[in-house]
Amino acid sequence: MEQIPKTWRRIQLSKATHCILLVGLLCLLVPSNLRAAITLQTPSTDVVIVIEPLSFNTADASLLIPICDVSLVAKHPGFGRVYIEHTPLSGPMELVMYQLISENGLDFERSEPFLYYVRGPLYEEVPIGRLWARLIQPFKGEAQQYSSTLRLNLVLEK
């Protein structure tokens, strides 16, 4: 009867040894696979937003004022969206609200984005167009005393 417990211990020791070796091998193999699975690779994306300010005649009493011409120079395969937001025109004594409009008919007030598509790895110029400010009321002072901030948010898709 003493032979059974010794054999039993040998079997258990053998199973434990195999189990430890198997777990050790798995530990050596798994981290390299995990590192490869979580490696972050960024695509070769290059987008430049080009803004060309426009001058306007301050003596013109129009409520439609040209702001700037906007275009993208992009190098990435796929498409993207550009959202444009703005702050009111602020002057020394007042705020003048305006509606931001595009010559292409985009309505930035409703967060409508400008959509574009780039074909491949070469730089392409994508014109967004001229942006205009449609004033709610005319300026009370000099037009050069007023300022506003435009924010362009670029969202790249693949």
What would you say this structure looks like, in words?
With 158 residues, this protein is an alpha+beta fold. It is 22% helix and 39% strand. It has 1 helix and 9 strands, in the order H-E-E-E-E-E-E-E-E-E. It has one helix at 3-37; strands spanning 46-53, 64-75, 78-86, 89-90, 95-96, 98-102, 114-118, 124-135, 150-156. A 4-stranded antiparallel beta sheet has the order 1-2-8-6, with no helix packed on it. A 3-stranded antiparallel beta sheet has the order 7-3-9, with no helix packed on it. A two-stranded antiparallel sheet has the order 4-5. Strand 4 and strand 5 form a beta hairpin. The longest helix has 35 residues, at 3-37. The protein is elongated, with a radius of gyration of 32 Å.
Give structural attributes.
158 residues; alpha+beta; four-stranded antiparallel beta sheet; three-stranded antiparallel beta sheet; 1 helix; elongated
**Helical region count?**
1
Q: Give the overall silhouette.
A: elongated
Our estimate of the beta-strand percent is 35-45%
Mean pLDDT: 75
Instruction: Characterize the largest beta sheet: strand count, sense, and whether it forms a barrel.
Output: 4 strands, antiparallel
Number of E-type strands: 9
Helix and strand element order: HEEEEEEEEE
Overall SS class: alpha+beta
**Widest sheet: strand ordering:** 1-2-8-6
Please report the distance between the alpha carbons of the first and last residues: 72 Å
Taking all Cα atoms into account, the compactness measure Rg is 32 Å
**Secondary structure: helix percent:** 10-25%
Low-confidence stretches: none
